[in-house]
Design a protein that fits this description.
Blueprint: E1 19-20, H1 25-34, H2 37-44, H3 58-70, H4 87-90, H5 97-105, H6 109-130, E2 139-150, E3 160-161, E4 167-178, E5 181-191, H7 201-214, E6 220-225, H8 232-240, E7 244-249, H9 253-260, E8 268-269, E9 276-278, E10 283-285, E11 288-297, E12 307-317, E13 335-342, H10 348-356, H11 360-369, H12 381-405, H13 407-410, H14 414-422, E14 426-431, E15 434-438, H15 446-455
Parallel strand pairs: 2-6, 6-7
Antiparallel strand pairs: 1-14, 2-4, 3-4, 4-5, 7-13, 8-11, 9-10, 11-12, 12-13, 14-15
Helix pairs in contact: 2-3, 2-6, 3-12, 6-12, 7-8, 12-14, 12-15
Length: 462
């Protein structure tokens, strides 16, 4: 590839009022409207007493913020991306960045909870309209995790140093997924930077369980988490809600002793990196093996909190070739152990594999930081808490767009969906009181975009 003209013959002019850079925002806004996001915000979010009209028209402002996030805005100033070219002809009621910033800063914690309620109801409607959780009649996985988001500026409310030694704000999310569905966010919460990972986890898990059931899930629900969330409160919530759990256990003395008591012939090799299938013996030759033993957790708590279930143990051979002299093998095998406390009914190998898939929540963290949650830009804690909920709405809306477009986009990363289906340049033309989006010829994802366009009720011009 090379330039088609010399620099002296190449010009640029920002002079076309009929162009817009994100033609895919039109079906996204239409889908949000069809699933009732504006009406839910009007009904539930009421910023009474906010000065300078900050609480007026919350539905329009929420729609502007969500649309801006889909267009790549990761700060308040970036929401100005919605005011370019023909955007105000494609979508009406766009608000200025200063107006949107004032709106977020007017939030109190009670208003954030109102926005949570609207977001939960909207996700339920998205699920019914777009089938966001196929396979939920069989099994649904709920994965909880937390992350410290680094922030800057001495005036940031709640910004403190936490376990990672990074000054920031600490947020929790719970995502729901199935073997057929990419993860969607079903619960989220912002805390101060010094908050422990497990603080408030039990109530957030309870909220997430209620949410997935409201979304129509009728199959088995499995709550998965790492060792930071191993607590009697989280397990008690799972038991009360009649859902399964699979939670990593820290290597305490009692756990190490129990692992040491496992007979050597109880270990089963599993498929792991560099594993080889032995056809004759019909088993894996692997550096990783699993076993299980019964374990009673929380023996130091009241009897009602003590729980007996499976302890799934994964051991991985320690291999450090740099420390082994040439021509000399290892004298004895050394292992790293990972224990999981679970009451899932699956066979041992399958149960351990199910738990390892908990890492899917990291994909959601990556998606959020690659889009709407690249920054927590406000100095007010509640404004950033509201932004976190709006980012969750934008994430789930993006997932819905992908599910309507194609099977590939239904499980693609949200960045891929936004790049291929939302960031589509278009030129608007008006004729006989109709609006036509003229899109690029030979767009590689034209079929998927047309599926999305028609699924939300728009028509194609032939």
């Amino acid at each position: 590839m090379k330039s088609s003209h010399s620099p002296s013959a190449t010009f640029a002019a920002f002079d076309d009022a009929n162009l817009l850079a994100h033609g895919g925002l039109a079906p996204a806004v239409r889908l949000a409207e069809r699933c009732g996001l504006p009406g839910l915000v009007r009904e539930k979010v009421r910023l009474a007493g906010a000065g300078n009209g900050a609480g007026a028209a919350p539905d329009v402002k929420v729609m502007s913020l969500v649309a801006a996030m889909l267009a790549g805005a990761d700060s308040i100033d970036d929401t100005g991306v919605l005011r370019h070219g023909a955007m105000e002809r494609a979508v009406a009621g766009v608000r200025a960045p200063s107006t949107l910033g004032g709106f977020l800063r007017a939030f109190t914690w009670g208003h954030v909870r109102q926005l949570h309620s609207a977001a939960r109801a909207f996700t339920c409607r998205l699920t019914g309209d777009c089938n966001l959780l196929p396979g939920s009649d069989e099994i649904v996985f709920l994965d909880i995790d937390s992350k410290i988001k680094q922030v800057y500026g001495a005036g940031k409310q709640g910004a403190e140093h936490g376990c990672t030694k990074v000054r920031g704000l600490h947020f929790q999310i719970v995502v729901a997924s199935t073997p057929l569905a990419a993860p969607v966010i079903v619960a989220e919460r912002l805390r101060k930077g010094s908050a422990g990972s497990a603080n408030g986890a039990a109530s957030l898990v309870a909220e997430a369980i209620s949410q997935v059931r409201a979304m129509g899930a009728t199959g088995m629900i499995v709550v998965r988490a790492d060792s930071a969330f191993f607590s009697h409160k989280v397990v008690a919530v799972c038991r009360r809600a009649k859902v399964r759990f699979s939670i990593t256990v820290a290597q305490r003395k009692s756990v190490r002793g129990l692992i040491a008591s496992i007979p050597e012939d109880s270990w089963t090799a599993i498929k792991y990196p560099k594993a080889i299938w032995d056809q004759d013996e019909e088993r894996w030759i692997s550096d990783a093996e699993v076993a299980e033993v019964q374990y009673t957790a929380f023996t130091g708590k009241a009897k009602k909190y003590q729980v007996t279930a499976r302890l799934l143990v994964l051991r991985v051979r320690r291999l450090n070739q740099d420390d082994i002299p040439d021509g000399q093998g290892e004298l004895f095998s050394a292992y790293r152990y990972h224990a999981v406390f679970a009451d899932t009914p699956s066979p041992l190998v399958e149960a351990e594999k199910i738990h390892r898939a908990h890492a899917i929540v990291e994909q959601v963290f990556a998606d959020l930081e690659d889009s709407a949650l690249a920054h927590l830009p406000s100095g007010r804690f509640t404004a950033n808490a509201a932004r976190l909920t709006l980012a969750a709405i934008a994430h789930n809306l993006t997932r819905a767009l992908g599910s309507l477009a194609s099977a590939v986009h239904a499980k693609a990363r949200t960045g891929t969906i936004l790049r291929q289906l939302v960031a589509v340049p278009a030129r608007l033309a008006t004729r006989a009181r109709t609006l036509t989006f003229h899109l690029p010829t030979r767009w590689p994802w034209q079929d998927a975009f047309e599926n999305l366009w028609t699924a939300v009720g728009h028509r194609l011009r032939t």
